[in-house]
Amino acid sequence: MQLTFPNGEHANVALRGEVIVGSRAGSRVCLPDAGLAPHHASFQRDRRGLWLRVPAGVHGVHLNARPVRRLAQLRPGDLVCLDKVRVVVRADDEPAIERRIPATAPVAMSEAQRVAAARVVLRGLSGQHYGRSYTLTEPRLIGRSASADIRLDDAGVAERHAVVELHADRVVLRAMGNDASLVNGVPVLDAVLSPGDQVVIDQHRFQLEAPGLPLRGQMDAAKPATTTHTQTMKAVRVPVARDPVPAPEPAAIEPPRKDPGALWWLIAAATVLAAALTALLVYAPRAGA
Question: Which ranges does the record mark as transmembrane (predicted)?
Answer without folding.
Answer: 262-284
